Amino acid sequence: MSTTTVTPAATRPSVKASAARARVIARTELRLIARSKATLISATAFPLLFAAFVIAQAETARNAAVGMICMVLAFFALFAIYLTATTTLVTRRQDLFLKRLRSGETSDGAILAGVMAAPLVLFLAQVAVVAGVLVALDIPAPSRPWWILVAVVGLVASSLTAATATAALTPNASAAQISTMPFITVVLGSLIAGPLVESRYLDLTPGGAVVTLVRAAYDLELAGSPWFATAGLALWTWVGVDLTRRYFRWEPRH
């Protein structure tokens, strides 16, 4: 972070107070997203389109559950979390909303948690919609579902920290259309290459790691290892955290 304010322990907000303030910020962000037609459409259109696609291709989907789940998780994480969170952080920083929040008693962690909670809620709602459709269509359930849970947690964590890191390097909302492309390209490129290229090193990419973890959940043959894939997602999360700590600014970048 750019500047760090040391708060005396006696006046430091409690965890309960910080959580309450983060919830207030999250509700505010959800209302702002709901008022923005462009953001609302981009954040909700994909689950509806995917649900319609699954229904239309029901028989094919039963034979391609792994591919469908990988696509759903990666696309939703990119569009609902990564793009929305990056744009929101850059916009709120440019209009001094973050600076005003920081001038009060709200901690830095509560501010970021509140802003990031809204995209996370959208992601979970989207996944719930599509999961309901998959269950209704009697798509085969995974034999080891905990690996899908690991994929979701890792993908969410890496997308959130990638968003804060990208926002740290992005001067304005218009520039975010370009600065977000490298991470999107890496995720989608490795997602496509995952089933085609038999290399364990693809597990070190977000898309490749998700493919390996979902295949492990369905007990399919693997080129890599679910533990290596978990380490890959953890590595991307750590890189995002490190870049955020080094370069994030609370005031507008010029």
From TrEMBL:
Residues 24-187 form the ABC-2 type transporter transmembrane domain. The chain crosses the membrane at residues 38-58, 64-90, 111-134, 146-169, 181-202, 222-241. It holds the Pfam family ABC2_membrane. The keyword Ligase does not apply. It is a multi-pass membrane protein. It is found in: Membrane. Keywords: Membrane, Transmembrane, Transmembrane helix. This is ABC transporter permease.
